[in-house]
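<amino_acid_chain>
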Amino acid sequence: MTYTDTTARPAPGAWHKLTAAIALTLPAAIAPQALYAGGVESHPSALGVKAVDFNIGAKPLAGAINDFIAVTGWQVGFASALTQGVRSTSVVGRYTPRQALEKLLAGTGVSYRLGGSDSVILERETEPSAPAGQSGAATLPAVQVNADAGYDVHDPYNKDYAATAAYAATKTDTPLMETPVNIQVVPKAVLDDQQTIQMTAALKNVAGASVSSGSGGLSDDIFLRGFRTSTYFRNGFRIDSQFSSIGTRQMANVERLEVIKGPASILYGRMEPGGMVNVVTKQPLAKPYYALQQQFGSFDLYRTTLDATGPLMKDKSLLYRFNGSFESGGSFRELVDNERTFLAPVLTWNIGPRTQATLELEYRHDNLNYDTGAWPYINGQFIPMPRSRNLMERTPSGVEEKLIGFNWSHQFNDDWAIKQRFVADLLDTEQRWTSAASSALNHGNTLPRSLYYIPGRNATYFTTLDLTGHFDNGIFRHTLLVGGDYYRTDHSGHPYVASLAPIDIYNPVHNPTPITPFTTAWSPSDNSADYFGLYAQDQIKLPYGLHVMGGLRYQYVKQWDNLAKTEQPADDAVTPRVGVLWQARDWLSLYGNYVENFGGSNQWARTRSGKPLPPESAQQWELGSKFEFFGGKLSATLAYYDITKQNVVTRDPTDSTGNLSIAAGEVRSRGPEVEVRGEVLPGWNLIATYANFNTRVSKDNSGLLGNRLYAVPRNLGSLWSTYDFQRADLNGLKVGGGINLRDGATDGSRNGYETAGYATVDLLAAYSWKAGPSKLTAQLNVNNLLDKTYFSDAYLCGACSSRTIGTPRAFLGSIRVEF
């Protein structure tokens, strides 16, 4: 039997659901490649459909399928002989239809393929794929299926702009409409449409997120709800740049970004209170998929990526995925170019229906150049010079990173499961940058600049163990999470400095040769820290659509200096989180939460008493509403938050030297956020975001009271929209564009210097077509179409001042083949 799928979505109601199983009298061999429009099999942890309650006991498979259809209204097609003598496992609890079907079929030797948004075809797991349009015996007339492809969240062909669930906010597979936390997902479809090469570029699709150019552009510099953070997470594993030149996140193996708004300390420990970015990487799939993409663009950019996945064994017990990329490119800035190599193999072993283990590796080698963005501020203004001018020298910096991870999970029964993860991340860096004292970048100066060289090593070791269970106590349904984690970080570096010849800021002549030998710039560092955390969380489902979530975390941190052989007193804290959500309708949820945060350490600040300062802390109140339309295809969030951060280090007013500190500072950030994302009409996708930041110093003794924070604008918004043409004669054509708007940002100093606001425009055009079994896509993106000159932030220190300089108009083209 052959199904012919169309990518156009029909009007609502055109796809009718059956209320009983369709026992098709078919031969066992059917044409699975033609049955599944998306091209890959569903994954057991699919999150793309709303969860419902199941109570199906173990029984003959045909009867269990009837029960499944009675609950979901889905269509299930199968050969009658397929279910003879086969018993299903039980499915009791709250699951998405796809999760329930996976459990129902576990251990039966039967698998399924999607035929539409709410239809599946059952088949034997070991059955080979017949060529499209053929079957093992008779061929029945073609059936036209006018339905959306019903993409799995892990499907490489997934076109969805909206997500209905995310793991990071709760560490459980909870639908977003039932989660009293503001979490936004940037899926693969958006990353592909925007040809995202840097993680920070994807955050323009999230309200409340902004970015800067940390460490000369060589680290991911993120601001969430007004708070700057050097940390992001990879599948829940903390990666901290410490605002040093460790290189930016590679995107070749990134499936999506999950952005949690507000404190996330309860599950992930010490961090800034504005939120966290969690990178979700691509995992092995049971259906073979291969993709090769060549990108080329302005400033001599060339980037090649490879994605390959599939089973290594016929029974699909061993799966693999390999992602790799090579990138080389220049810059609109003088003396800046980069070369990056990235490899990421993954192996997954399905030990049994309930047990899985995964081994993953990442290798990254970057040859980078540090760009300070030096732009002297003299006589009350930045000097006039072209945005391409670099007043420093070429400073090649090397980064080599080796990450190895192992995780396993086991499901004891339908309600209880355990999961453990180990990660070791070894990072070796050779940082180089040039700088100058304030008086060394004045017109006609004769003072030298400085060249710094810092070889360093960062090693992070991490493990976490989570136990998740579902149980009822009569009226209430609980989802319980109990877990713990441990981080160990070791950081060492030895800084050296040499002198470079002076430079004329109006007529620069570059000379990269040091005029003095390298000497130790300051004392070497060798620091270590242990982070221990224990946490518990309970999500309670009550009658009438009420959901309550509560949890606690105990965090213990110990730090020491290996060279000085000194140990700091431990930091520890208990941080709670509570949230309440009322799902008034399937499409409307109202929520509120209160969260406390365990923030950055102040252990190394010098105090008059010699005692360390307490760590930073914070609290957040948030109220919001969530909307979901068209079966989750379109979602919206409206939220208002209020965050107060305490124990911010300020100067000691009793100290005339200015070298001693106290923890008297406080910062407050509050404001509304609005975001809309998803498919408005068939083929028309939209992302619209807006945030208003009232982020100011609320307590201080350094003259900063009332000042806005560094690099945080007052208003920030974006609009991005694409359209896939639905007409047959234009099928495969996609066009799109967007605009990003931003107020000016202050430098955070007493003088209150503020950059000018700006708007940039982006465009997209792409065309896809079939070539035999392959899909080819040609795409062109234009960023900053109007070639706007802008500066997202500035730092003032006289002649040594700097600005983050916006990229001029840039073209990025690509050719991608998938099969």
